[in-house]
Amino acid sequence: MRRYYRSEIPESSLASNQLDGSRAQLARQGAIGGGGRVERVTGDPDDIRLDVDYRGRYAERIAQELREVIASSDIVKPPYATVGASQETDAYYAAELVDSQPAQVQAPGAVSVGADLSKAGTRNTHWLAVDTTVSQPEPGHPFGNDIDVTVGLPADARRVRIVDATSEPTQRSRPDPVATVEAEHGSVAQYDPAGESIDDPIYLYDLEYDLQGDVDVGVWDTYGHDTIRDADGVVAWARVFDTGHEFDESALVLENGLLRLTIDEPTNADETALLEAEAWDPSAAGGDGAWTTISLPEYDADLDTDWQPADVDLTHIGQARIAAQVEFEAVAGANAGDVYAADVQLDRGHDRAFVTETSDGELPADLQALLEPIASESVLDPGVEQTLAAREEVRP
């Protein structure tokens, strides 16, 4: 099994062949749903030609997920590597989407994805890096005035250190986490950037390839399914990596393993809108963990105005942070007809969303009450962005 960041590509067999007069490796692999794939490692050791054929159930949505992560500008040089083992080609790659040059004839009924991958480095040449720029946005929010701020890193991260720059840093330190939280797919260590000896520190760390992505933030397209797995236990949702993704009348999910927000926009076919919130409880389900409902105030019982999500504009889908502007419409009650857009951000390791006001002005009182159970009380945004840092650039 191999993964390109979080997209799994099962492997069935390996062989060798000659292509264009140069030695190459061909990897014929089985894909999710019964398909196959061929990976060609060309004569240039730093380049890989990746071709994937998906067949069977959910082939189109699985292929779309892989296309999006390959083409993403927010997922910076992700790993393409073997799960639970290692191969010579395991590394970080920059990718160019190429669908028109399959390495083999496409099988009938298959959905193909192709890409040229250019090696950007390995765990031996690069650190994972999380830049921080702690700030207090203007306008802010009415949910509290805490000045606590944390940066979440995978608890499995090794050799964590902070520097003041990714090119010839002058300051270095070894930070200690202030807390560790249990998310759906692993533990997240929380660090306090405001309490470090370096202003706006850059966190450097190493992490095994097949653990990368497990505790990262994410966006899902539910494709009309209420739960992530269908009746047969097959994953029916698909991850989204393109901010312009078309959700085709299905709900979207924003999550970071601790907080999950499900938003269903109204359509011509179905005017119903939905905002649901869940928290990950690691002690539920006999200690296996489960998502539990966060109770939100309801119209007529708790609120005088019925605020419902009308539109979601995804603005960033990265490894450490996802952001969206959500437009709410008052569909009934005291302020019926009003519209308000709020900025919503989920950070890795945070159990609440960072919700801030926009140029629409102050949050209406009932909309504030609706969002309060899921909104962070901190006024500080850690300003996290994940990238890679060359080891040779940050050596003492």
Residue share in helices? under 10%
**Can you summarize the main beta sheet?**
9 strands, antiparallel
Average the pLDDT over all residues and give the rounded result: 88
Strand order within the widest beta sheet? 2-1-7-8-9-6-5-4-3
Percent in strands: 35-45%
Q: How many extended strands?
A: 27
Q: Indicate the radius of gyration in whole angstroms.
A: 22 Å
Structural class: mainly beta
- Tell me the number of helical segments per DSSP (H or I, 4 or more residues long): 3
Along the chain, the helix and strand elements come as EEEEEEHEEEEEEEEEEEEEEEEEEEEHEH
> Which residue ranges are poorly predicted, with pLDDT under 50 across at least 5 consecutive positions?
12-38
Tell me the distance between the termini: 37 Å
Gross morphology is globular
Which keywords apply here?
nine-stranded antiparallel sheet; six-stranded antiparallel sheet; single chain; 6% helix; mainly beta; 396 residues
Short description:
The chain is mainly β and 396 residues long. The chain has helices at residues 59-71, 365-371, 391-394; strands at 2-4, 7-9, 13-19, 22-31, 35-41, 47-54, 79-82, 91-97, 111-121, 126-131, 151-154, 158-163, 172-173, 179-183, 186-191, 202-206, 218-221, 238-240, 252-255, 259-264, 274-281, 290-293, 305-317, 321-333, 339-347, 354-356, 385-390. The protein starts with a strand and ends with a helix.
